[in-house]
Design brief:
Mean pLDDT: 85
Number of helices: 2
Order of helices and strands: EEEEEHEEEH
Oligomer: single chain
Structural class: mainly beta
Distance between the termini: 41 Å
Radius of gyration: 15 Å
Shape: globular
Amino acid sequence: MSCTATSATRALRRPSRNSAKASWTLDHVGVQALVEGGTHVTAIELWWPGEGRISSTRVLLEGDEVFTTPAQDLFRRAAERGWTVDTSQPEYPVIPGASLGFTRQTSRKVERNTGGLPRCVTSVLVGGKDYYNHRYEERG
């Protein structure tokens, strides 16, 4: 079974006062280039096209379809590959070693797990190698 959803929120990003973004759509997949605290792109975020929209673009994580593989399976397989998967913020899970952040929020009526989260992720953010370090520095 596949999962589809659109999202009104974004993957957890680095805190930054000076930021800008450029947004566009490519084959119904939303794309945002983020510039946070400087003049260079710091991350790219991709958004699922949404219910009823068909896209020939595939967003893959080691062969798994990011937007249609149930999140539980996507993250389990990532952990089986030896990656750390941080789900301490369930709506914003990350794979810090790969600098991947995900959104599991949507206001749309979609299939949800028992915890109320969308069954599949609704966006994926790819950042530089240390993109999510701030998340762990705050823990001390």
